[in-house]
Specification:
alpha/beta; Rossmann fold; Isoleucyl-tRNA Synthetase, Domain 1; OB fold (Dihydrolipoamide Acetyltransferase, E2P); 3 domains; 22 helices; 18% strand; binds 5'-O-[(L-methionyl)-sulphamoyl]adenosine
Length: 656
Amino acid sequence: MSTSSEAKRTFFVTTPIYYVNDVPHIGHAYTTVIADALARFQKLAGKDVFFLTGTDEHGQKIEKAAAEKGTTPKALADSVVGRAQGLWKALDIEYDFFVRTTMDFHEKGVQKLFQLLLDRGDIYKGTYKGWYCVSDENFLADDIPVDADGRKTCPDCGKKASAVSEETYFFRLSAYQDRLLKLYEEHPEFVRPQSRLNEVASFVRGGLKDLSITRTTVKWGIPVPGDPKHTIYVWFDALHNYVTASGYGWDEARFEKFWPADVQLVGKDILRFHAVYWPAFLMAAGLPLPRTIFSHGWWLKDDTKMSKSRGNVLDPHVLLKTFGPDPIRYFLLREIPIGLDGNFSHEGFLHRVNSDLANDFGNLVQRTLTMIGNYFGGAIEAPGEETAEDAAIRTEFDGLKGRVFDHFQACALNKALEEIWSYISRVNKYLADHQPWIMAKDPALRPRLGRVLLQAAAAIRGASYLAYPVMPRSVDKVWGFLGEAAGPAGVRWEAIDFGSFGPGRKVGTPQALFPRVALKDFLGDESAAGQDSGPAAGPETTKGATNMDIITYEEFKKLDLRVARILEAERVPGATRILKLKIDIGTEQRQMVAGVAETYTPEELVGKSLIVICNLKPAVIRGIESQAMLLAAITPDNKALIPFFDRDIAAGAMVK
Ligand code: MSP
């Protein structure tokens, strides 16, 4: 087993490498955000960190996706890689290395390892006959029954598998059964959480068959050295990214320094590849094994796993646009312990953001610093002595710091956040109990007032530091408001103490940290009138002139009303009143959501021209950003009737 990371003073964390058939969604973002938080924490703790992520670009799945999109696998990969990297940047992911399995050093490294195993007799040639699931890039177990249509179904993803019969090179996996069982027994931390270790061990105890690791019918892969009609099985190729990207075969110094990885994060669907095949490959090559394969759960939407093929993925860009990265990072890490599944609901997300971030944390920062500004001109020069209550806030911070450290070390990120937020509530209560805004009215209480606010500011500084691995951007801002010359990244964990924020420190003017967004504004409300879902009905269907304000022509002129042509229209799964439209407004194309599904079918709308407002603030309705609103009349039974034009008119024409 590996040297312990405590001894080597390094920390190496990996995410799986993502398939390039599509851009990552919230589910993929989850793993990457976990890795980023762990990496940032370990850096604060003084470790030399290597954080690896990347893309899995070979194999039949990508070959097929490229063919369907009418492009080459490499061109598809190139375009997805750019977009994936853009998403990681937007989420403030600070990886150290981005590996692509089409990189030269990786291909050479995989061929070298293949040759090594061949030379050692762990790889041999034979024939494979069985079933293959392209979606999971997985050979099916023999005992899966054949369906009525003569085909087998993949038990993991539910898709039909393809029959395969071809010459192949096998990896002698069966020879590693005992060694793997011994590994799980001697190093139960090899698979976490514990419940997953039991699953893996019982799978291995059930018997291992040799594994086919080359294909002759797949062209998009790394050629087998000396036998190029075979390409290397995508999982043999992909798993080795962890060693090639850390330097195996081309940067031995880096490889020596960082390998083996400390934590390899994987979703539970790919645990078997990482906890069975991967250590067996490494044992065969004589390389050290990773310390821990940490298996996380899935983000579900409406109780099913989010996936592109199910059409229920959440686009992180929609959330990022409204909230920025930190609320997403916080929510993903706070909501569930790593290992369990989580259900993503917009309601749950908004509730957390509004209550924990905007109210509890954002407000605390805002109120405290505003009071220091108003009452002390930004600097508390002469606070009164600490009372027992003030001292408790300080000493509780020390205890908190220790517990949060342990939770981060144990990858219990949700517990770390829980602890930090219960301290934040504690500080909120301390302020509420002391009512500094009342104290401020009595000059005799000025030193006492100074002490209370100083204590609160020191608590904010400390607590926000502890949350930095999860919310780097917001904590950088908080530290800026607190008058720190630099952000928390350069401050070592052991150097953080409550007393570092002392009398005389000049604080700045705080700005809002987190947007407070109402559910209705964010999601729209299908049953509400107005901007959100376009002109769906409210309770009132006719409005008397008397209940409307008179506006001037100047005010009316602010509306950018234009003719739009409907290019595409489709239903929104699970929604009965709204349609998603793509419209041409002359200068550009936009998407919008309109509450007209009860009056029109998508088909009858395509090609029609109508009037839209183009400069209304975009709203997100059912997770779809609506970038315009159409005009319609509301019938007495609450249906929307669109006024269409009775002769041709070009899209983009002004309406006034
Ligand atoms: N390419 C392989 C991994 C090779 S690693 C040597 C692969 N790629 S993937 O893009 O399909 O998935 C990557 C990771 O994303 C997996 O760990 C998977 O569990 C995770 N997730 C995909 N959808 C997810 C959710 N809805 N929720 C949480 N994680 C999800 O598998």
